[in-house]
Amino acid sequence: MRHCIDVPSAREYAAHLRAAELRVTRPRATVLEAVHKHPHADTKTIYGAVRAVLPEVSRQTVYDVLQALSDAGLVRRIQPAGTAVRYEARVGDNHHHFVCRSCGVIADVDCAVGAAPCLTAPGDNGFVVDEAEVTYWGSCPDCSAAQVSRPGSRSQSDSPTPGRKDRRVQQ
């Protein structure tokens, strides 16, 4: 399981923006940095991280920058069922996600076998598949351990939707 990526330097953020043919601005570089530092963060978390660096930035600017970065392929927008939109910096591969039904933690998981076998769909109806979204639902290690230590409590799988809390999973 891969849970985070190396955080680039400010110079590398600028280079990424230029390579994507985006003008380098402080809000763009700061949002890109926030997404790198907070994997699977929702917009509210990213906005808070950006405001800590650029107190004058508006919520709309952060939304607009996230859209531009997503459109340019510099960040990936994900939204597991029943959760808020999240953003991650791990792009360019076809990885998937684990989502804990209890606490809402999201963790990356590489394709199950080989080089993206999920992109070979049986009966593709003529579609050219370039991405597949697979979400594994269950209990994270912390919630599983807590469930075992509380006999008789409600099962994590009884919960129809995951929680909203997001924590970084350590390997």
Describe this protein's structure:
This protein has helices at residues 10-19, 26-37, 43-53, 59-71, 141-149; strands at 41-42, 76-78, 86-88, 96-100, 106-109, 135-138. The chain has 171 residues and is α+β, with helices and mostly antiparallel strands. The protein folds into two domains: 10-78, Winged helix-like DNA-binding domain superfamily/Winged helix DNA-binding domain (Arc Repressor Mutant, subunit A); 91-158, Ferric-uptake regulator, C-terminal dimerisarion domain (Dna Ligase, domain 1, 2-Layer Sandwich), CATH 3.30.1490.190. The strands form two sheets. The protein has a three-stranded antiparallel beta sheet. A three-stranded mixed beta sheet has the order 5-4-6, with no helix packed on it. It starts with 9 loop residues before the first helix and ends in a 22-residue tail after the last helix.
